[in-house]
Amino acid sequence: MDKKEFPIGAFDPVAYFTTAKYFNGARGHINGNPITTRVAVEFPEKVIGLGNQICHRSLMWPTEAIPLSGSTGIYTALWNKCKDDYKANVLYWNFILDKKLSPWRALLKGRKIIRGKSGRPLAVYLKCDAQTSSQFFINLCIATRTAYEKANVTRAFAFALEEGLDLYEALLFSSSFKIRDNGDLAQVGWQPHFPFNFDMNIPLERLKNGPTVFHSDKLHNCADDWRSRPSINAIWCERGVSSKLIKIVRCHERYTGAFPTRFMDEFGSYNFDDGILPNPKDAIARIKEVRHTL
Hints:
Blueprint: E1 4-7, H1 13-17, E2 38-42, E3 46-52, E4 73-77, H2 86-96, E5 112-115, E6 121-127, H3 134-144, H4 146-149, H5 151-162, H6 167-176, E7 177-179, E8 185-187, H7 204-209, H8 244-250, H9 280-289
Helix pairs in contact: 2-5, 5-6, 8-9
């Protein structure tokens, strides 16, 4: 881990996060330009730069965890991996970091966007204290990294908005589905670095209002040892309930509010073909038909 300490007045976030030109190659090609995934933790008297981080690794993993007791905030990179996805990424960032609309808005009162000379976002500063739930806070940090790690998800989010879903419906859609480079729809699949559990049901109201129940034996907060953390993405899910959205999109017939009995197995679960998905437009059309049930 590439750690470096800065006195509180000597830390320049623009300089710290300006380490390379923005990615200008075609999608999928690095073209020799390194991309920063830097993270820095702020304390009252200093800032500890952690260097490049895979999904905020040193905030989460037992062998590398940073003691965050007394920390006042985190800086984390907002980097765009490919110019083709920049507009979609900005739409995603603008929503998840919106102080009034974001599902994470309870954590955004002190947030600041760090921008480079061109005006493009370099990083975001997120304020925390001893009362901040680490489960919720790290979940937001992971969400900010979606644009860099999973641009096919932000692509699905932007497409859903274009097709008439609202912001929360589009976020729900992109929690389970992505759009590949060739335009095909695909399920997100299991992801260790993702803010949502794609195959569990996420009530739309929970995205609108924010999580209220944290799935852990106790409320872990930023004064605790984060190494004993619970599952980071469990805060959005209904435990033991499979994704309603996936069932709607993958159903053999158009969903009209109630699936025919013949599409249910002996356990009462809906059958759907794991090998077939509709095109993205048809998927959004199905969701629109039953958006009131989400």
